[in-house]
């Protein structure tokens, strides 16, 4: 008989950020925790929604904090998806919301969080390099939203 894992539920929000010309998108490389086959994780910026924060506010904050980008335009809500995974003896249920964002022509860039390296890649290359399928789904939704999509 297998022991049932404890369950932790939480909400997160993040962004698929395209360059001002729409030709590239932002990914974050995290080398501390290695992903499949010993490669660094390639991620989208996202994180927990704080109490009193809307998903949209959390997404903008997470992109600002993790990627070091502050001059952003939110173009479209890309919807919701539920992601479930087991990690370190706990079953996680994460309700995610993601937004298509664009950098403005005068994007203010600070260094990203210490755990991340910021990279701009062509869409196809970014899609292929992302570590997790749920994040690839956000990119597919962003691509189908169109380059001039606005909320």
Which features does this protein show?
Nucleoside Triphosphate Pyrophosphohydrolase; single chain; 3 helices; 151 residues; alpha+beta; 22% helix; globular
Question: Could you characterize what this model shows?
Answer:
- This protein has about 150 residues and is of the alpha+beta class.
- The chain has a single domain, classed as Alpha-Beta Complex (Nucleoside Triphosphate Pyrophosphohydrolase), CATH 3.90.79.10.
- It has three helices and seven strands.
- The chain has helices at about 55-65, 125-130, 135-145, and strands spanning about 5-20, 25-35, 40-45, 45-50, 70-85, 90-105, 115-120.
- A four-stranded mixed sheet has the order 4-1-6-5.
- Strand 5 and strand 6 (about 90-105) form a beta hairpin.
- The protein is globular, with a radius of gyration of 15 Å.
- The N and C termini lie far apart (about 50 Å).
- The relative contact order is 0.27.
- The model has no long low-confidence stretch (mean pLDDT about 90).
Short summary of the structure?
With 151 residues, the chain is an alpha+beta fold. Helices cover 22% and strands 44% of the residues. It has a single domain (7-145), classed as Nucleoside Triphosphate Pyrophosphohydrolase (Alpha-Beta Complex).
């Amino acid at each position: 008989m297998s022991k049932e894992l404890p369950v932790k539920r939480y909400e997160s929000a993040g962004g698929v950020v395209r360059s001002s010309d729409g030709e590239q998108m932002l990914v974050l490389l995290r080398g501390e925790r290695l992903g499949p086959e010993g490669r660094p994780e390639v991620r989208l910026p996202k994180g927990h929604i704080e109490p009193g924060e809307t998903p949209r506010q959390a997404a903008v904050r997470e992109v600002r904090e993790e990627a070091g980008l502050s001059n952003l335009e939110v173009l479209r809500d890309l919807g919701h998806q539920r992601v479930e995974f087991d990690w370190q003896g706990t079953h996680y249920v994460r309700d995610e919301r993601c937004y298509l964002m664009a950098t403005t022509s005068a994007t203010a860039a600070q260094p990203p969080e210490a755990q991340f390296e910021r990279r701009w890649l062509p869409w196809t290359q970014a899609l292929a390099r992302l570590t997790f399928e749920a994040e690839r789904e956000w990119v597919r939704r962003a691509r189908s939203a169109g380059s001039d999509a606005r909320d």
